[in-house]
Amino acid sequence: MEKIRQYFPKLSQQQYDQLAMLGDLYREWNAKINVVSRKDIDNIYEHHVLHSMAIARFINFCPGTRILDFGTGGGFPGIPLAILFPDCSFKLIDGTGKKITVAKAVADAIGLKNCTPVQLRGEDEKEKFDFVVSRAVMPLPDLAKIVRKNIDKQKASSKPKGVQPSTGPKSNVLPNGIICLKGGNIESEIAPFRKIAETADISYWFHEEWFQEKHVVYVPL
Questions:
Q1: Which end of the chain, N or C, is less surrounded by CB atoms within 10 Å?
Q2: Shortest CA distance to 50 belongs to which of 90, 113, 4, 19?
């Protein structure tokens, strides 16, 4: 939590309280259902919560934005983002029922009202959203094929395209599309989208060694 307070110093007390509850909740649930590697559970805040919150450094979702978390697992990146953006709506989907059970329990325990976890395969999702977020679920071209149908074609603000810091004005400066968390060499994944994709190195915002070669990748659809 110290790192979260360092990197996000202007959250409300309720948001800090909700984030502070995540550690114990995920440790408790992970002992029953393995949603995070048991070798990695002690790094829940840096490797999972803070990692998810990198998307909030890439774009400040305006109130009313509809976001689909594709392949959420136990709730990443959807639950940390739902805490950060209480005026946006988040639908978290995963095909594995046990993982959705954890996401629902965690969301209920911290009082999230803007987050709906549902057991559902991405191919079966029919709703429209402004953005789809995902954390290393599958190669980007495969993901784009599945979720293209779910991106609302109405574009966002007409302001100039570019990365929007979390402290900026409350408007989506990016057209609707996919925002993914990726690691390692991503050149081959973004090759089909080279002319339209934007990437940002998470190490620019978060300086821990683990974030080296971690990226946010955005593709408008």
A1: N
A2: 4
